[in-house]
Amino acid sequence: MADGKTLEFNLEPCATPVHASERERLLENPGFGSLFTDHMAMIRYSEAQGWHDARITKREPILMDPASSVLHYAQEIFEGMKAYRLADGATALFRPEENAKRFQASARRMAMPELPEPLFLKSVEALVDIDREWFPSVEGGSLYLRPFMFASEVFLGVRPAKEYLYLVIASPAGGYFKSGASAISIWVSEHYSRAAPGGTGAAKCGGNYAGSLIAQAEAIEQNCDQVVFLDAAEHKWVEELGGMNLFFVMNDGTLVTPPLSGTILPGITRNSIMTLAREEGLTVVEQPYAIDQWEADAASGKLVETFACGTAAVVTAVGTVRSSGGAFTIGSGGPGQLTEKLRRRLVDIQRGIAPDDHGWVKKLF
Predict the structure, then answer these.
(1) Does position 34 have pLDDT exceeding 80, yes or no?
(2) What's the pLDDT at 178?
(3) Helix, strand, coil % over all residues of the chain, rounded to 5
């Protein structure tokens, strides 16, 4: 049974890659999430063989049996991470070990086998290497990486599956928000909850996002960019957006963020921002923050900025909060000074412009 150190990837290059001229045309405006590279990484797992059949191969459709367990019981997890071009021309990943650890934590919660960290890192690095020509040159461009795993066993009984398929695909990415606005507007979900204590809120699994889509659709109907969820028990405490963590900047230099109580995804960007904020001399507090207090603090001027953060959107200012009861504006309605400063510090580290004092950036080639 192979482990993460001994299993090697077989390289099966795509025989019909996208032509260089066509690739250049596509990369002029990659958008987010709709353009993909030529290859994918793949590893199989079975209870009898463990992790095996590791390959870098042509990106193509997956052949699935209609009785594949994932289609019926949703045993599936994923990660989101980026590869960057550094200022010196090298390619790098940002804190990939943290993605590997979170992937393992999600697997434990969903009763799935844990992919060894070395295998996770090998799969991502090998895919970035073979598809290195797919980096977009647009401002802020990156190669978005999506490792994921699902139950592939052909079986309809209700139990954890005994066979799984792990893959990594890559997508050249530009900006996350299509509007290009300097600050986003968010809609307060009053009828739907993202997660509850004892649930899967801290796991990065597709079911969490599936359950949030109706609320996100409601936000779009209200001309908002994102939805913010409140706690399931009291429907009072702010938790997170549909795919991002939240921070609240107070006028005394305190930075508040909801605590990781099992219902909020432990964001890697969130953790990085907390570290950088403390280096800026800010007091960072993880504590519950009520929706009514949010509005009151914005009105009084106690709250001066709010921002969301995540791998895809990096750091994004929140300008307006809307609900069925009305709306309120945060600060001037645009990005504040601290939001911009923390974003710039993070991006400069990710891009190799600023020193990496924490060892977050892993150079590949």
Answers:
(1) yes
(2) 53
(3) 25, 30, 45
CA distance readout (Å), 76 to 29, 57, 205, 209, 229? 31, 21, 6, 12, 22
Query: Among 75, 44, 211, which residue's Cα sits nearest to residue 156?
Result: 75
> Mean pLDDT lowest for which of 66-75, 120-129, 173-182, 184-193?
173-182
Distances (CA, A) of 172 to 54, 85, 89, 267: 23, 12, 17, 22
In this structure, are residues 14 and 39 in contact, taking their beta carbons and an 8 Å threshold? yes
- 154's CB contacts (< 8 A; 6+ apart) are 65, 67, 68, 69
Integer Cα distance of 249 and 38 in angstroms:
42
Q: Residues 204-219: what's their mean pLDDT?
A: 96
- Token pair listed for 86: 């550094």
- Could you tell me the pTM of the whole model? 0.95
- The full set of domain ranges for the chain reads 10-173, 183-350
For residue 243, what pLDDT is reported?
86
Task: Report the CATH number of the 183-350 domain.
Answer: 3.20.10.10
Q: What is the pLDDT of residue 102?
A: 98
- The model's confidence at residue 179, banded by pLDDT at 50, 70 and 90, is very low
Could you give phi then psi for residue 232, rounded to 5 degrees? -80, -25
Number of H helices, E strands in the chain: 8, 18
User: What pLDDT shows up at residue 218?
Assistant: 97
Class of domain 10-173: alpha beta
- Phi-psi region at 359: left, alpha or beta (left = phi > 0; alpha = psi -120 to 50): left
Inter-residue contact 62 to 165 (CB < 8 Å)? yes
Give DSSP secondary structure letters for 301-363.
Answer: TSEEEEEEEETTTEEEEEEEEEETTEEEE-TTSS--HHHHHHHHHHHHHHTTSS--TT--EEE
